[in-house]
Amino acid sequence: MQGHILLVDDEQAFCELCSLWLTQKGYSVNTCGNMQAALALFEQERFDLVVHDLALPPTFRPEDTVAELIRYGDTPVVVLTGHNEKSLALDAIRNGAWDFLTKPIDPDFLNVVVARAIERQRLANEVRVLNARVEQENYTDTLGLVGNSKATQSLRELIRRIAPTDVSVLIQGPSGTGKELIASALHRLSLRKEKPFISVHCGAIPGDLLESELFGYKKGAFTGADRDRKGLLKMADGGTLFLDEIGEMPLAMQVKLLRVLQEGSYYPVGSRQMEHIDIRVISATNRDIPTAIEEGIFRDDLYYRIKGLTVATQPLQQRPEDIPILVRAFLERYGTQHDQQIQLDPAAAHWFSQQIWPGNVRELRNVIESAAAVCQNNVLSIADLMLVTGSSTVPADKDTPPRQIDLNHTLDTQVKELEIALIKMALEAQGGNKTRAAEQLGLTRQGLQNKILRYNLQ
């Protein structure tokens, strides 16, 4: 079957004739004589197209009729009109109709318009299905967490389970592992998603300013307070407050924060008017808080208040299978932002997987963006990576860890070792094909053969 069509016209002979034309082309056709019957059919069946006469009895205005049909089924509508009613047809198109036909109808023209409209609907449905599949498989639209490792999949599932609750969350893990990204995802999937998400870096604000930043202040509260200022706590009212690097918060401020979390109220600096707030608190730290408690630099009562649920992030080294996916995602993001399509050299792709990445995802992203900025011909190569990292680390092959070139070697020796490594990786990437490896390296085939002989790489 080519498609399911609903024909709405109060002329029975016309409906029968059009039905005959369309069924001969392989379409399934339902007919009815008024809008009420059409809407009733929409409740029972799914249609790929509606062909609708604008000259029906005026139960609805023509523009309302088109809008109602589209609302019911998100279905393309082709309107029928007489020669003297083209202005109505144009109004219908402005209100969402796909096309219009003028009576008397030419069967061939009818078939062309119907086929185009149904093909458009088929493509729209495919796009919706693909978008839903991408979101289901990668969760990138909803969570922004890229990767397919078991750790990343478990993290996605945990976020989805705890986001709708209102319990406090403590995110613990090394720097650069996406703690703020997780906090943002928890907010977007929570019941507070329509309210503000306010982030404050507790380690970036000096201790003597943190109180006024959080609580706000009244005019004249201290030197320089020339006006009233709302604090971050009040700005987050009804939503989520994200306390990044809470382990760096001074002890005196920890006491004041604890009281706010317990009572849901506070006094702005210099004010006698109590403020009341309703917030969800999400905290993050790269410190081992129990150790910080033993050292006397973090309060245990605040810890128990903020750690309702704990989310642990894993360093990139413990989930290496995420690295190729992250590399592609960051390259695509860079290309979108700069209207470029950056290709990744196979040797460079291998290089990424051989590094340790102590700075985790943040370091990986910065290296990719820097290398993409200096790459030539929109191809990111291992030479670009060496340039931006200032490193002489090259992987020997895919089964061995990175090999550090001795920085005490002469420059000639370093260049030689780098060239050997590049040749090996190019040959490996091209399955031993010397012609393609030479093209990848920017050499002639004979030039590559000469280097293979010179370095005894047979």
**Beta-strand fraction estimate:** 5-15%
**Average pLDDT score:** 82
Distance between the termini: 62 Å
Total of helices: 19
Protein structure class: alpha/beta
How would a crystallographer describe the biggest sheet? Answer: 5 strands, parallel
Shape: flat
CATH architecture of the largest domain: 3-Layer(aba) Sandwich
CATH class of the largest domain: Alpha Beta
CATH fold topology of the largest domain: Rossmann fold
Number of strands: 18
Work out the helicity level.
40-55%
Number of domains: 3
Runs in which pLDDT lies below 50 for 5 or more consecutive residues are: 133-141, 394-412
Tell me the Rg in angstroms.
32 Å
| CATH homologous group name of the largest domain | P-loop containing nucleotide triphosphate hydrolases
What order do the strands of the largest sheet run in, or round the barrel if closed? 2-1-3-4-5
Helix-strand layout with pairing:
Blueprint: E1 4-8, H1 12-24, E2 28-32, H2 35-44, E3 49-53, H3 62-73, E4 77-81, H4 86-94, E5 99-102, H5 107-138, H6 150-162, E6 169-172, H7 179-188, E7 197-201, H8 207-215, E8 216-217, E9 229-230, H9 232-235, E10 240-244, H10 251-263, E11 265-266, E12 275-276, E13 280-285, H11 289-294, H12 300-306, E14 309-312, H13 323-337, E15 343-344, H14 346-354, H15 360-374, E16 379-380, H16 382-389, E17 393-395, E18 402-404, H17 411-429, H18 434-441, H19 445-454
Parallel strand pairs: 1-2, 1-3, 3-4, 4-5, 6-13, 6-14, 7-10, 10-13, 15-16
Antiparallel strand pairs: 8-9, 11-12, 17-18
